[in-house]
Amino acid sequence: NYGLLELFGALFTKVMRPLFRLPGSASVGCATSWLGDGTIGVLLTSKQYEEGIYTKREAAIIGTTFSVVSITFSLVIISQVGLSRMFLPFYLTVLLAGLVAAIIMPRIPPLSKKPDEYYVENAGRQKEVIPEGYTPFSWGFAQATERAEKSEGLKQFFIDGGRNVLDMWMGVTPVVMAMGTLALIIAAYTPIFQWLGIPFVPILELLNIPEAQLASETILIGFADMFLPSVLAAGIESELTRFVIACLSVTQLIYMSEVGGLLLGCKIPVNFKDLVAIFLLRTFITLPVIVLVAHIIF
Fold first, then answer.
1. Contacts by 236-242 with C-beta closer than 8 Å and gap 24+?
2. What gap in Å lies between CA 276 and CA 114, rounded to an integer?
3. pTM for this model (two decimals)
């Protein structure tokens, strides 16, 4: 509301466009997710998409690629598998694997196939080309100042914020609860995720992961809830395997008990089939990176 997107949009466009095929303003949503929570990043992206700031493709990429797990919950994950002392290498590995996925995912289907169409036309959309006589900072600052001048004041800011919170509580939370509960019931009371993990046993053995059979049971269960893989991994003896499972559960990103359900409940243009494909692709992309780092560390 007061120009942060405009400022960072101008500063980071030359980084975000070539690397991730996104406008520079997407960096704000990314930072929001890392330092706050992934759900906040999704809601912020959905709101910006509805305002005509992002196209369908850009909103889908940001919502499914940059709504990462917060630093605080990552600490909970690594503590659950008994490797709290390794939080720094764990989180650096997550960042590396997440960066690789963020570079690759926008360039392959289903995200690359999303159209560059806007939800609404927005005459005030930020221009990425920096005019003559401006530096990225001065242009971003000029646009940010212009945006701040159009703000309707703190009262309206809090009214809009309250409305967004109510939208989440009344409209999105029931979807998240329904999808998350269903996924957790399947994970807890059926062997479906264990069966689905069987094809990963030879892959994990090829990657020289100890206790591959037990590890395979955690690979796809993260689709139900991100915390479940680390719970199952707590009984595995190999520290290397526990490290890999903890990192993978965070970098898979799409879990139905929170981010996945939220994506289905908001206006970001992704469906359940897209989420399944994105989850599997992120698994295949990040697993080799994580395993490589794990073998170096251990």
1. 236/211, 237/210, 237/211, 238/209, 238/210, 238/211, 239/83, 239/298, 240/209, 240/210, 240/294, 240/295, 240/297, 240/298, 241/209, 241/210, 241/211, 241/214, 241/215, 242/81, 242/82, 242/83
2. 16
3. 0.89
Give me the tens of pLDDT residue by residue for the chain, a chain 298 residues long: 788 888 888 888 888 889 898 888 888 877 776 666 777 788 888 888 988 888 999 999 998 988 777 788 889 999 999 999 999 999 999 999 999 999 999 999 999 999 999 988 775 566 677 888 889 899 889 988 988 888 888 888 888 888 877 877 777 678 777 877 887 788 878 889 889 999 999 999 999 999 999 999 899 988 988 888 988 888 899 999 999 999 999 999 898 888 888 888 888 999 999 999 999 999 999 999 999 999 999 9
Cα gap 56→264, rounded to integer Å: 14
Region for 117 from its dihedrals, namely left if φ exceeds 0, alpha if ψ lies in -120 to 50, beta otherwise: beta
